[in-house]
# Entry
Amino acid sequence: MPPLISCNNLTIGFEDRVLYRDLSFDINSGDYLFVIGENGAGKTTLMKTLLGLKKLLGGEIKVSSGLKLSDIGYLPQQTVVQRDFPASVFEIVISGFAGKSGFKPFYSADQKKLAVENMNKLGIADLKNKCYRELSGGQQQRVLLARTLCAASKVLLLDEPVAGLDPYVTEEFYELIRKLNEEGITIIMISHDIPAAKKYASHVLHITDEPTFMTKRQYFSEGYGAGFAILKDNGN
Amino acid sequence: MATLIEYLSYPFVRNALIVAVLIAFCSSLMGVTLVLKRMSYIGDGLSHVAFGALAVASVLKVTNNMLIILPVTVVCAVILLSAGKNRLIKGDAAIAMLSVGALAFGYLLLNLFSVSSNLAGDVCSTLFGSQSILTLNPTDVYISLVLSIVVVIVFIVFYNRIFAVTFDETFAKASGVNVSFYNILIAVIIAVIIVLAMNLVGSLLISALVIFPAMASMRVFKSFKAVTIASCVFSVFCALLGIMIAIIAGTPVGATIVACDAVLFLVFCGIGALRPS
# Structure
């Protein structure tokens, strides 16, 4: 089976500044890829390039024939605007369908049903009519994840989804993602969390000036991850 | 009360009330989006542009001002929105330059070419609305009617996508929503609303009509739909109340309406603070 997403010799960066070159990696269906690296290394830029939100400076991204761009769901980092947004949980979750409705002005009954199913799946069905800004950080993140599931059901790109969550909620969120991954959804997760990568990832992409891509086993046995993790621990 | 009933029997007062309700309704629709997208200042900038366009229109002695003001304001709205992404000129600086420039040129033009004997009065009335809502001719009423209906229909049809773009532009883009189209659509709707609202409150007070209802409702209501509906009710109520007070007390219409908005906003703040979360 050909890989779901195949990236060859990508050049990633901004129009006036290249961050790194010659990045090649494949993502197969069911993979759980952790993208790690320091702040400003270009993790989010890579995600946005994969999603077509930023221009690809070089190389090519091949997507397997069965996969459409709209099958890739994106969970962006939360913005300041969202924290005090007056909207109910249901309104936000169902807005995941906004790009799929074509010329129809309203959401269909099927879409409403799916939205409720996704909320059930993530354990937030009881929050349906609650106001988004009154939820806890972990609940907000689940709401946004439910919205992403409405938009796409095959691949999820998550950009530091646990940033700012307390350890207990973080663990819960990782378990949720693991469950989705076991159900067959391919996960690409940007994170600083090396221990979590060790626990959950199938592959690791370490972004530096010269990014390295390998399976989790290779990554942690060759000492990259171990070294990085020790540095991080000392830093904290 | 008797005065009020007597006034209501005049067709020009009834016209004023109809148009005021329509304008108040439309202007509150986009308020929530503007406030949340941090675009309130665009409304303010555009209203000054509309003043400049009005000055040009009156110097050229165009039979209907709207024919010039509307297209000029719409074009500026689109330019301002794209300027937001331009790194050479910062978005807010561009807006400040355009709006102050338009204000200055407008006043200059009126001074140089005006045939009116009461220039200060004219300028004051375009800036603050004063009584212009009470002197609408049937064409103005008709145009306001059509434009308001168009704005409401467009808003309802695109409601879900306007919500998506307001809440999370990046996500909306990634999930296939044509974000730049909707941003331009939002800007155009705002431009139309501002041109409409110039009649009611004058160009300096328009932002109040857009922002107060949204800010007030956001204090009390918890879903986007509820906030939108509440802002409409809030805005229409203030417009009607303001006009009635203005008629009875002989105060300027625009300023009275905005004063009502401001007072009611404080009331909503109080309610919001008392309400347990």
Summary: Residues 78-153 of chain A form one domain. The two ends of chain A are 43 Å apart (CA to CA). The longest strand of chain A covers residues 17-27.
